[in-house]
Amino acid sequence: MAASGDAWVREYNEAVKLADDINNMISERSSLPTTGPEAQRHSSAIRRKITILGTRLDSLQSLLSKLPGKQKLSEKEMNRRRDMVANLRSKVNQMASTLNMSNFATRDSLLGPEIKPADALSRTNGLDNSGIVEQDDGLEKLEDTVISTKHIALAVNEELDLHTRLIDDLDEHVEVTDSRLQ
């Protein structure tokens, strides 16, 4: 088992707390009116937290792929951690589908399927070890940036949807008031 000071375990526990918070917010949603600005704000807050949780899960997955070189974990522990992330990701996808977040994309739908080892090998011909390591580091940073940008874009999209609905609602109220005035 991992040490209690393990950064990955701490990060995972924070992600679980966030998932629990989201579940509580989804439960609270039933006590709110089904329409109106308060319900929209609540749904938007849930969507933002789901997006943040998605980013944390991507970060956990990335940390997990870097752990074997930094820490000595057994294959069993690595598989257990992969399963933990997969189970939490499944819960996140269920929460997202509850809120009809159909644009909550998976890594493969955004970045494409994993590169086959043969393809990766052909691209590294002519590079020495330091060149390959440098290229890997650059690609990892690029992946982190792209994933972060994706989640920011999803959060902005959700916020824009909320504002559009609020403006439509305001427009409807203005029309009603205008007809009353006439």
Automatic annotation (TrEMBL):
<protein>
    <recommendedName>
        <fullName>t-SNARE coiled-coil homology domain-containing protein</fullName>
    </recommendedName>
</protein>
<keyword id="KW-0653">Protein transport</keyword>
<keyword id="KW-0813">Transport</keyword>
<dbReference type="InterPro" id="IPR010989">
    <property type="entry name" value="SNARE"/>
</dbReference>
<feature type="domain" description="T-SNARE coiled-coil homology">
    <location>
        <begin position="129"/>
        <end position="182"/>
    </location>
</feature>
<dbReference type="InterPro" id="IPR000727">
    <property type="entry name" value="T_SNARE_dom"/>
</dbReference>
